[in-house]
Amino acid sequence: MENKPLSIPSSGTVPLKILVVDDQEMNRRLLMTMLSHLGLHSEQVTEGNEAVQYCQTHEVDCILMDVNMPLMDGLQATIEIRKNEQNVAKKKKVIIVAITANAMMGDRETFLSSGMDFYIPKPIKIKDLRDVIGRCIQRFSETPLH
């Protein structure tokens, strides 16, 4: 496993804030371990509705969102998070990454059209995670903070 830490640009002194959303504990642990190997800290919740609530009370830069969850799936949670962003006129939009075993033709387009920004298929490879986090960092470095 390549575990070279990422160079994380920050706004002031606060590092990238990552939320892992998955109903399966093993998947959450795996993602959080991979992020830790990349030198990143993350928080976790177990359902889409918890992710929506978390985003209302915490600042989040990137969400790694499982698509298939029983109470509120990742697509619906993404739609709700995007609605809330519009309602409160946030200066920066959280980056949402679809994490799923669905790799059928058209799935990627479905995820992106729901408001997700990137897609990583399961089983997750640390290289794929590193690439997507790097793209998230790049997007934040291109976005003015005022």
Characteristics:
single chain, 146 residues, alpha/beta, five-stranded parallel sheet, globular
**N-to-C terminal Cα separation, in Å?**
38 Å
Q: Strand arrangement, largest sheet?
A: 2-1-3-4-5
The average pLDDT is 85
Q: So how many helices?
A: 5
The largest sheet, given as strand count, sense and whether it forms a barrel, is: 5 strands, parallel
What's the count of strands?
Answer: 5
- Rg over CA atoms, rounded to whole Å, is 14 Å
- Portion of residues in beta strands equals 15-25%
Walk me through the structure.
The protein is an alpha/beta fold and 146 residues long. It is 42% helix and 16% strand. The chain is built from five helices and five strands, in the order E-H-E-H-E-H-E-H-E-H. It has helices at residues 25-37, 48-57, 74-88, 107-113, 126-142; strands at 18-21, 42-45, 62-66, 95-100, 118-121. It has a five-stranded parallel beta sheet with strand order 2-1-3-4-5, with helices on both faces. The N and C termini lie far apart (38 Å).
Task: Give a quick rundown of the structure.
By secondary structure, the protein is an alpha/beta fold. It has five helices and five strands, in the order βαβαβαβαβα. It has a five-stranded parallel beta sheet with strand order 2-1-3-4-5, sandwiched between helices.
Topology of this protein?
Elements: E1 18-21, H1 25-37, E2 42-45, H2 48-57, E3 62-66, H3 74-88, E4 95-100, H4 107-113, E5 118-121, H5 126-142
Parallel strand pairs: 1-2, 1-3, 3-4, 4-5
Helix pairs in contact: 2-3
